[in-house]
Amino acid sequence: MENVLNIYKQPYDEAFPVVCMDESSKQHLRETREKLPMEPGKPERYDTEYERNGTSNLFIFFEPLRGWRRVDVTARRTAEDWAMQIKKLVDEDYPNATKIRLVMDNLNTHTGASLYKVFEPAEARRLLDRLELCYTPKHGSWLNMAEIEFSLLSRQCMSDRMADREYLKQEVSAWVKNRNAIKSDMNWRFTTEDARIKLKHLYPTI
Predict the structure, then answer these.
(1) Strand ranges across the sheet with 68-74
(2) How would DSSP label each residue in 83-140?
(3) 38 lies in a domain?
(4) Cα–chain-centroid distance for residue 139?
């Protein structure tokens, strides 16, 4: 836990960026009846019935100090999907970074083993050498700022029913473009001292 908090205290350095990543899902719901349009004094209305149309997975990478994020919508959340996202992070998002300090939770696919499963050993090693993996503690995924950014995405962009993956991609892309344009960053105020008080039960008793 303190490792995560200490990383957040580091000043901005483009050679050693702190990037938070997380995953989420969105269920696609197709309308079975036409919506009733908005009228004076009445919001848009839709029927409670709907048709399930599968789900999509979302990967988010968020650099809080720079106010930059990328969200990719995928069909799955396998080790291969995660590995391909990491390659994109290293080679496309941060090609000039010396070391990317990556904050994420302990999902079983979030490991170097996933890279070795997908890529040749030399390529997997090259990608890992560009990363400093920093895991949030068990039951402490809320320490990952990408989770907070996902909450904003859910409330501001994905609260409505979305019938299919393509529509979700369009909406998410517009949201990301707007957030990046204004460089919406995040000021993390939770300190190590706060953690020792609020999360006393997680610290060993000596």
Answers:
(1) 68-74, 50-63, 18-31, 100-104, 131-135
(2) HHHHHHIIIII-TT-S-EEEEE---TTSSHHHHHHHS-HHHHHHHHHTEEEEEPPTT-
(3) no
(4) 17
Domain that holds residue 18: 2-29+50-202
User: Among 4-13, 53-62, 99-108, 147-156, which stretch is predicted with the lowest mean pLDDT?
Assistant: 4-13
pLDDT digits (tens, 9 = 90+) for 134-153: 998 877 666 788 898 999 99
CATH code, domain carrying 62: 3.30.420.10
Determine the Cα–Cα distance for residues 158 and 156; give it in Å rounded to an integer: 6
Two tokens, residue 37: 């349009």
Cα(168)–Cα(27) distance, rounded to whole angstroms? 10
Give the integer Cα–Cα distance in Å for 20 and 16: 13
47-57 pLDDT per residue, tens = 667 788 899 99
Query: For 190, which DSSP code?
Result: -
